[in-house]
Amino acid sequence: MFRRLAVFPGPFSLDAAETVAGPAAGPAVLKLVDCSLIAPPRTGPDGRGRYLMLETLRAFGLERLTEAGERPGAEALLAQHMLGLAERAAAGMAANATEVQSATWLDAEDATMHQALVWALEHDPAAALRMAVALAPWWMLRGRRFGQGYAWLRTAAGRVPPGDPAWCAGQVLLGETTQDL
Length: 181
Hints:
Blueprint: H1 2-5, H2 14-21, H3 25-34, E1 39-43, E2 49-52, H4 55-67, H5 71-94, H6 99-108, H7 110-123, H8 125-141, H9 145-157, H10 165-180
Antiparallel strand pairs: 1-2
Helix pairs in contact: 2-5, 5-6, 5-7, 5-8, 7-8, 8-9, 8-10, 9-10
């Protein structure tokens, strides 16, 4: 469990831990907190309890994860989890009543979202493009539309074959962004 949780580059929720490390992660996370291998949960900017692994322990855990041959699977699970989170947050941002809450949720997941997007660009371009499309409203809200956000979107769109539904959505967003430049 420890080595699988090392895949998180920053604070993570118990829900995210269970997605990446399995349903038995809950009790294991508590045990890892008792052993001082993970910091006790602190309330993140989104109001959710978040655990954190010190960087030195994380590096050790990633080495063990790689040695066990489990890193690709853990990274894939993390990317899928973050894709789902990005799409749920995008739906929340589309509703005025939950826009701020959804943006704050993504703020809390920024480091993990970045890592998942980098992984998806390399291993699952269609998922990367879906993630970039879902994150576009957040990027715009946070002032990243013309910089990093546009670059991510353009890169992801360039790696998905034309005609794919994600490609179409990406092209629409790229066209809208280009018109705003």
